[in-house]
Amino acid sequence: MVKEKSRRRREKGVMEGVVVLVLACIWVWNPSFANANTDPSDVSDLNALYSSLNSATQLTGWTSNSGDPCGQSWLGIACSGSAVTAIKLSGMGLTGTLGYMMANMTSLMELDLSNNNLGGGNQIPYNLPPNLQRLNLAGNQFSGSVPYSISQIITLKYLNLAHNQLQGSLSDMFSKLSNLTLLDLSFNSLTGDLPQSFNTLSSLTTLYLQNNQLTGPIDVLAGLPLEDLNVANNHFTGWIPNQLMKINNLQTEGNSWSSGPAPPPPPYMPPPPSRRSSPGQHSGGESSPTNGVRSDDGSGGVNDGGSGGRNSGIGGGGIAGIIISILAIGGIVAFFLIKRKSWKSPKEENIGQDKPFSGLDSDLTKDVADMKPIQASAIIDMAPLPPTAQISLKPPPIFDRHKSFDEDEFSNKPVMKKANTTPIRATLYSVADLQVATDSFSIDRLIGEGSFGRVYKAQFNDGKVLAVKKISSAALANQSLEDFIELVSSISQLQHPNLTELVGYCTEHGQHMLVYQYHKNGSLHDLLHLTDEFSKPLTWSIRVKIALGTARALEYLHEVCSPSIIHKNFKSSNILLDSELNPHLCDSGLASLVPNAEFQLLRASEQNSAPEVAMSGQYTLKSDVYSFGVVMLELLTGRKSFDISRPRSEQSLVNWATPQLHDIDSLDQMVDPALEGLYPAKSLSRFADVIALCVQAEPEFRPPISEVVQSLLRLVQRANMSKRTFGSNAQEISRRANDSDVQDYSL
Question: Which of residues 330 and 317 earns the better pLDDT score?
Answer without folding.
Answer: 330
